[in-house]
Structure formats: C-alpha cells, structure tokens
Amino acid sequence: MRAAAVVALAFVLAAAPGARADDHDDDDDKPEVQRMHIVERGTVLTVSANITKLFDSSAYQALSSGFATTVQLRIWVYPKDSTQVVAYTPVVRSVVYDMWDEIYTVQLSADEKPIRVKSPAEALKLISTIVDVPIADVADLPYGDAATNVFYIALRADLNPVDKRTLAEVRRWLSQSGGGGLDRGSTFFGSFVSVFVNPKIAEADRVLRALSQPFFRQKP
C-alpha cells in the first residue's frame, strides 16, 4: 500500500455543535461540525468519518426487518468563502438481512464485494463508518496555509431516501464512472447549494449533514 501523507489541518471550525439534521427548527438548520480524517494517498484525497448518528433506535431495529436499508452519501469539497465545488462524490450503501440464513449483507459501494456479517451491530458499524473514501484529485487543490487555499468537506447522508429519481441518478452515475467516485463537470456540481445548504428539499427517513474542520494542503 502506498504511504499516506496526512494533509495539514487548520484549527477546528469555531461553531456550536450541530443539532440533528432531520429536525426543522431554524436553529437546527446548521450542519453538525465533525472532525474528519483527511489524507492524501498518492494523487487522491481521501476522507474518513462517522455517520452513526443517522441511525436512531428504530432505524437500527429496521436493519433486521428483512427489507433493504439504503444510505445515500453525497460528499463535496469546496473552498472557504465559496460554494464553487471542487469535487463531488456520491456513494450508495445498503444492508439486507436474510432471515433464513440469519446473515446481514452489506454493500459499501458499487465497486466493492458485499460483506456478510452475523450481527446488526456489525452491519451498523460497517454502513456508518466511512474509511478512506476517495473524494478529490489532489491536483485540483492547490497548496495553501491557514489563510489561503483553505477547504471544507461537506457530507450529507440520507437514510432510505424517498426521492427515487435522485437515487437512480446517483446509481447510474456510479455505474458509468466505474464506481471511482470522483466527479468533474456533472450536473451534481450545481446541486450543492440546494441539496446541502438547504436541508429541507429532500425527503428521507432521516438526514445527517456534517461539515469538516477547515483544511489545507501543506507543501512537502
């Protein structure tokens, strides 16, 4: 495995902790601020994060219902003081419980083999843990410091999205792109403001919006 060069991180974003993203009070419209692990791996920028808060007790119990649980992830990289997206990555994950074999089948992305586990806790951990997901080409992020070329990662996770058309578009894009997850110039670029900044437009069982700490690429 190629050695990972950890991206230089600026100070944690100074903001109050975010509330649940699926609530609709004005004070709850802000995304949750979450420290994410951002790493350069060769020519690709990757992120690791946790979305366990997307699942409440009912959603956890539903993992054992026999019906598919779907998580739609949308991840954007954008500069500070701008909504001009540098990169966009969609990911669709799912869990299905086989009641006969008592096995949970977890699909983490279109280009990964399904993982089979025996407990709902294991299935939850797999589907709610984001590990080294490629989100951008490092060439698209110039070197900077704490004052210049500072970026954020915005993440939206939808549990069982009702908007089947959007889910179908994400899946179609993934199949056409080979599942790599790095998007340039697609119509999804224009969706950042409406989908992430405005949390009320999409329908799902639950929605989690998270914003990373600011970061920049430090010259080697």
Question: How would you explain this protein's 3D organization?
Answer:
The chain has 220 residues and is α+β, with helices and mostly antiparallel strands. The chain has 4 helices and 11 strands, in the order E-E-E-E-H-E-E-E-E-H-E-E-H-H-E. It has helices at residues 57-62, 120-128, 164-177, 192-197, and strands at 5-6, 32-33, 37-41, 44-50, 69-79, 87-98, 103-107, 115-117, 129-137, 151-161, 204-211. The protein has a 7-stranded mixed β-sheet, with helices on both faces. It has a 4-stranded antiparallel β-sheet with strand order 1-3-4-9. A hairpin with a 4-residue loop joins strand 6 (87-98) and strand 7 (103-107). The longest helix is centred in the last third of the chain and has 14 residues, at 164-177. It is elongated. Mean pLDDT is 79; it is low at 1-27 and 178-190.
Main attributes?
single chain, alpha+beta, 4 helices, 220 residues, seven-stranded mixed β-sheet, elongated, four-stranded antiparallel β-sheet, disordered N terminus
Strand content: 25-35%
Number of strands: 11
| Strand order, largest beta sheet | 2-11-10-5-6-7-8
Shape descriptor reads elongated
Kindly report how far apart the N and C termini lie: 20 Å
Q: How are the secondary structure elements laid out?
A:
Blueprint: E1 5-6, E2 32-33, E3 37-41, E4 44-50, H1 57-62, E5 69-79, E6 87-98, E7 103-107, E8 115-117, H2 120-128, E9 129-137, E10 151-161, H3 164-177, H4 192-197, E11 204-211
Parallel strand pairs: 2-11
Antiparallel strand pairs: 1-3, 3-4, 4-9, 5-6, 5-10, 6-7, 7-8, 10-11
